[in-house]
């Protein structure tokens, strides 16, 4: 190829010039997190406690991602593929009872564990959880969970060739052991008589690691705010200067100015002609001070203007960029709802897609294995589920579950319910699915309807042949037993 052809076909961005500077050298994910991870984590924790913008983002994401707690619907089936209501109800009751004290301290319910884990996952990019079996009691399962913060797994711990950043892996990259500090040095008030700070190696099978991974081959997670920390700090400082200027304007003050021809000897002093010191106080509440002005003096009232009359729009534009980088809607953190229905709906749907994506990872990597499957395995080992129903169950479906979080808010409830009705009539969604769609539990709704007067539910008053058939089968099984 001739030289001019090579020049024309090249990527211009790959060649530096006076107007196109070379980018910084990119290192591996672990190398960058090793050098900057601790500082990013400290910044994220600080701003999460002191920045209103960060707090608004975290509150919105936790409320939309977890809310009052995820809903777990067991889906165990028999070998014919039909659901087993009695076994699913027993699993649901067991799980609800275990959820009252899910962590090792016995103080946090499962819902609180979910919220704290999601919040730490967003703030520092990762959270660890240790599976602990503490022994069964008459009323509670022996399984509990211990949440471990990122600071307890040191970035700088290297033990041998396969242990990097506190996690030891095999030749394929699968975690073997996790090195965990017994306590966090910064959280201890007194350091007397404490053991030496040496991490303890814990089998990776006992550890659940939920992390936000932005690059391939990243051992540790990175904070959600890694790209907007400086932007949030700048916006906070800008808002602080704006508040100070507004406060100065509200606290009106004044001063006495003296002209060039001011001569104190020729002026009459309010305290006498021989007075040499000026002890007047300018009290704006006492306008008689104007009577004490000397010749050549005047009062000047100071009213500082705001830094920028377009400050509100500037901050809103910055918040829009901040919200886009943090995977939330601008209106969730700014509480601006003065736009058209179409704009609000588009923003809500787009932001909810991002929340649903993150919730999917949270359920897959943390909620399902640690908060459902492990308690269910323990219940099976301890014999807390009905054996007769377990014999009917297909073993491949014992851990099938439908986990859902908060549903998308309704801007127009009438249109959303009409769409749900069409989905059910067309067979695109079940009645139970629509009940969950509006944030309710099907079992509880059915129990309340059954105990209520049937004349209030004309749509459900028609006899269901499938339900009658199911009841007949249950009676025949009981007679056979």
Description:
The protein is an alpha+beta fold and 481 residues long. 43% of the residues lie in helices and 11% in strands. It has 14 helices and eleven strands. The strands form four sheets. The chain has a four-stranded antiparallel beta sheet, with no helix packed on it. Strands 3-2-8 form a three-stranded antiparallel beta sheet. It has a two-stranded antiparallel sheet with strand order 1-11. Helix 2 (29-50) packs across helix 3, helix 3 packs across helix 5 (110-124) and helix 4 packs across helix 9 (341-382).
Task: Quickly list its features.
single chain; 481 residues; alpha+beta; 3-stranded antiparallel β-sheet; 11 strands; 11% strand; globular
């Amino acid at each position: 190829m001739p030289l001019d052809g090579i020049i024309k076909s090249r990527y211009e961005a790959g060649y530096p010039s006076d107007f196109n500077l070379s980018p910084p050298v990119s290192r591996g994910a672990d190398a960058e997190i090793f050098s900057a991870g601790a500082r990013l984590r400290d910044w994220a924790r600080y701003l999460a406690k002191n920045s209103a913008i960060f707090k608004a983002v975290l509150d919105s994401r936790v409320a939309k991602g977890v809310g009052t707690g995820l809903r777990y619907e067991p889906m165990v089936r028999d070998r014919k593929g039909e659901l087993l209501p009695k076994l699913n109800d027993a699993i649901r009751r067991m799980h609800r009872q275990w959820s009252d004290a899910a962590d090792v301290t016995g103080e946090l319910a499962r819902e609180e564990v979910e919220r704290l884990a999601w919040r730490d996952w967003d703030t520092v990019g990762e959270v660890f959880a240790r599976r602990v079996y503490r022994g069964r009691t008459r009323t509670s399962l022996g399984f509990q969970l211990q949440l471990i913060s990122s600071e307890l797994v040191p970035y700088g711990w290297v033990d041998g060739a396969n242990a990097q950043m506190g996690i030891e892996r095999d030749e394929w990259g699968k975690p073997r052991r996790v090195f965990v500090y017994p306590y966090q040095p910064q959280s201890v008030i007194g350091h007397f008589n404490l053991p030496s700070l040496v991490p303890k190696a814990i089998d990776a099978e006992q550890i659940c690691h939920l992390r936000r991974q932005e690059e391939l081959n990243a051992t540790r997670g990175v904070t959600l705010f890694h790209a907007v920390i400086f932007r949030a700090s700048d916006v906070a400082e800008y808002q602080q200067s704006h508040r100070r200027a507004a406060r100065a304007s509200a606290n009106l003050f004044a001063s006495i100015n003296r002209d060039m021809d001011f001569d104190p000897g020729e002026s009459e002093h309010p305290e006498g002609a021989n007075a040499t010191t000026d002890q007047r106080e300018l009290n704006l509440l006492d306008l008689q001070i104007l009577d004490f002005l000397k010749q050549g003096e005047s009062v000047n009232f100071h009213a500082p203007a705001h830094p920028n009359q377009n400050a509100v729009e500037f901050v809103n534009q910055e918040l829009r960029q901040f919200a886009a980088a943090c995977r939330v809607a601008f209106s969730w953190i700014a509480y601006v709802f003065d736009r058209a229905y179409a704009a609000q709906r588009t923003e809500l749907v787009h932001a909810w897609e991002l929340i649903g994506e993150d919730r999917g990872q949270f359920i897959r990597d943390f909620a399902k294995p640690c908060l459902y499957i492990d308690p269910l395995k323990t219940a099976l080992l301890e014999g807390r589920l009905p054996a007769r129903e377990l014999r009917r169950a297909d073993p491949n479906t014992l851990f099938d579950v439908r986990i859902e979080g908060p549903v998308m808010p309704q801007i127009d409830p009438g249109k959303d319910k009409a769409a749900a009705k069409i989905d059910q009539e067309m067979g695109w969604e079940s009645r139970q699915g629509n009940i969950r769609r509006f944030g309710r539990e099907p079992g509880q709704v059915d129990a309340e309807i059954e105990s209520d007067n049937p004349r209030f539910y004309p749509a459900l008053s028609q006899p269901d042949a499938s339900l009658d058939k199911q009841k007949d089968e249950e009676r025949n099984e009981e007679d056979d037993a």
